[in-house]
Amino acid sequence: MRRVPLLTRSVLKEVLRWYAAGIALFMILQMADALSSTVANLISYRAPLEKAAFAFLSILPSFLNKALVLAVAFAILLAFSRMQQDSELKAISAGGIRPLNLVWPLALPFAVVGALAFFNADRLVPAGLDIWQNRAWYDIYGQGPPAPSQDTYTYAPAGALYYAGRVTNDAGGRVAQLQGVMVQRGDETITASSGTWDTGKRTWTLQNAWIVRPGQNPVQQLRPLVIPQGDTLAPPVRDSRELVTSELRRALGSDRLDATQRREYTFQLATRYADPLTAIVFALAAGVLGLLIRSRAAAFASVVVFIALFYVLWTTAPGLARAGAMDPTLAAWLPNMVFLGLAGVLAWRLR
């Protein structure tokens, strides 16, 4: 009765050994890719070692989450191929133990990996991406981060329409800069290339504005034109990847998101739960597939195909979700559903 637990521990030891190597491999590959795409800027701006190190440390949590998942298939397929090559799986079958009994225990350690991936994705990844995209590189360039901005602002109270192509506001300031302005009030249309928005005085002040009225020629105002505007200046919508899960939920409960942003936020929220569970799904799918592999070469080929299929689904689904071609929640869970289906088909074959 003790042979199954002992065997399970032996298999887990073999898999976890390969898993550690897989995490190291995928971290190195991702870091090499990031470094190759940024080394020219680091050299051009003569970035000090501490600033370059700070930038790359900020992106490490994002790389870690990918490595935690991708290394699962790498570890299990190579571990099982080694056991197949040494006839260990044949000996196990000859001993009356069903091969599938080696797969189910793999879900437990990778459930722990999934919990770690969830914490990392919820806390460390958003903070790291915020530093990488909004602070670290501007420090290397010797520039301050740009002021928060919002594109295509629209406000439509009764009988009027206020539009600005871009609203730029210094953090914490009550005055914002406007670009590409159009205001419609009754039969009057006002356009200007620039202006300011004073939220304290609740006014828009437009420079060199043009006023168009029906049956009249356009008239340019040589003096600043002050227009009442009662809307409030809200902070711009942030990149969904830079928000923790609770912030994503609050944003989805507000009415500030347009349709595209709402789909993107919904997709990002769903991935916070779907991606960590991918480690468990990969463990089951790769475990069943590994029992069918007969050589080390086939194992390496399976790793490539496995990861390539996941990568295609993982990179295609966000675009489908943002475009509205697929429900965002379904798109986030699509890779897991496909590989869980694959695990079921292969397990049926091995039953």
Question: Would you write up a description of this structure?
Answer:
- With 351 residues, this protein is α+β, with helices and mostly antiparallel strands.
- The chain folds into two domains: 3-142 and 256-350, no CATH class; 149-228, no CATH class.
- Strands 1, 2, 3, 4, 5, 6, 7 and 8 form an eight-stranded antiparallel β-sheet that branches.
- Helix 5 (245-252) packs across helix 6, helix 6 packs antiparallel against helix 7 (296-323) and helix 7 packs antiparallel against helix 8 (328-350).
- The radius of gyration is 28 Å and the shape is elongated.
- The two termini are 22 Å apart.
- The chain has helices spanning 3-44, 49-85, 88-94, 107-141, 245-252, 259-290, 296-323, 328-350, and strands at 149-155, 160-169, 175-185, 188-198, 203-207, 210-212, 219-220, 225-228.
- Strand 1 (149-155) and strand 2 (160-169) form a beta hairpin.
- The model has no long low-confidence stretch (mean pLDDT 89).
- It contains eight helices and eight strands; from the N terminus they run H-H-H-H-E-E-E-E-E-E-E-E-H-H-H-H.
- It is 60% helix and 15% strand.
